[in-house]
TrEMBL record:
One of its GO terms (molecular function) is RNA binding. It comes from the Bacteria. It catalyses: uridine(38/39/40) in tRNA = pseudouridine(38/39/40) in tRNA. This is tRNA pseudouridine synthase A. Substrate binds at residue 110. The gene is truA. The active site is at 52 (nucleophile). InterPro entries: PsdUridine_synth_cat_dom_sf (IPR020103), PsdUridine_synth_TruA (IPR001406), PsdUridine_synth_TruA_a/b_dom (IPR020097), PsdUridine_synth_TruA_C (IPR020095), TruA/RsuA/RluB/E/F_N (IPR020094). It is an enzyme of class 5 (isomerase).
Length: 244
């Protein structure tokens, strides 16, 4: 049976995350409902990343299997006709039958955006974290380099599961300032639950001078979530790209 690969973008503001939940709107439910409208079949889809409530995506990848004679363009147009305005299918591909959006992924790029100025934003406020106190982006970037590599990231995981492997290979973590905006890019083979947001919250404390850049290495080594900073709010985070 053929496999369909969708690349989605969505604003997660009004959703309780990607994964289906009882009596709460989710992105997965919206996508599966659209597929049902198009095909008259009940299909379960798999996503590369299970984004949390309020988290966005520019390059979420979804896969499912179905025997349907439609072109990529027809799939895209038909699904978008049945999806809400804050979810869009950007591309449709027909990979090899064994393709799996989650298990075949080799790396994911997340980006966290911070607006660092005194006035609160009126535009795009659901897509960025407003931090009004000045941040030292250079110190934050210096601290970030202590996290590069393959490590146990338990200090930056919320709600760990008993059998989950805490080892992740974080290949890139950068903090760049462009005017009033800070952009934190994180690329790894995999991420633990709310790992990026926990890292961002810790780096912001470095940016405010509450921690030294060097202290981040000790936080990582402690493997204790209580030692790290607060979890940054979800609205600044987006899943940018998934590599296969």
């Amino acid at each position: 049976m053929p496999t369909i690969k969708l690349t989605l973008e969505y604003e997660g503001t009004h959703y309780a995350g990607w994964q289906r939940q009882l009596n709460q709107p989710t992105v997965q439910e919206a996508v599966e409902t659209a597929i049902t409208h198009v095909t008259q079949q009940t299909i379960s889809v798999v996503a590369a990343g299970r984004t949390d409530a309020g988290v966005h995506a520019q390059g979420q990848v979804v896969s499912f299997r179905i025997d349907r004679d439609m072109t990529a363009y027809q799939w895209m147009m038909a699904l978008n006709a049945h999806l809400p305005p804050d979810i869009s299918v950007c591309t449709v591909d027909f990979p090899l039958p064994d393709f799996h959006a989650r298990y075949k992924a080799k790396g994911k790029l997340y980006q966290y955006r911070i607006l660092n100025r005194s006035p609160r934003p009126a535009l795009g406020r659901h897509l960025i974290w407003h931090v009004y106190k000045p941040l030292d982006a250079a110190a934050m970037n210096q601290a970030a380099q202590h996290l590069i590599g393959s490590h146990d990231f338990s200090s930056f995981e919320t709600q760990p599961t008993e059998n989950e492997d805490p080892i992740c290979h974080l290949q890139r973590l950068t903090v760049l300032r462009e005017g009033h905006e800070l952009r934190i890019d994180a690329y790894a083979d995999r991420f633990l639950k709310q790992m990026v947001r926990s890292i961002v919250g810790t780096l912001v404390e470095v940016g405010h001078g509450k921690r030294t850049a060097e202290s981040v290495a000790g936080i990582l080594a402690a493997r204790d979530r209580r030692i790290a900073g607060k979890t940054a709010p979800p609205q600044g985070l987006s899943l940018i790209r998934v590599d296969y």
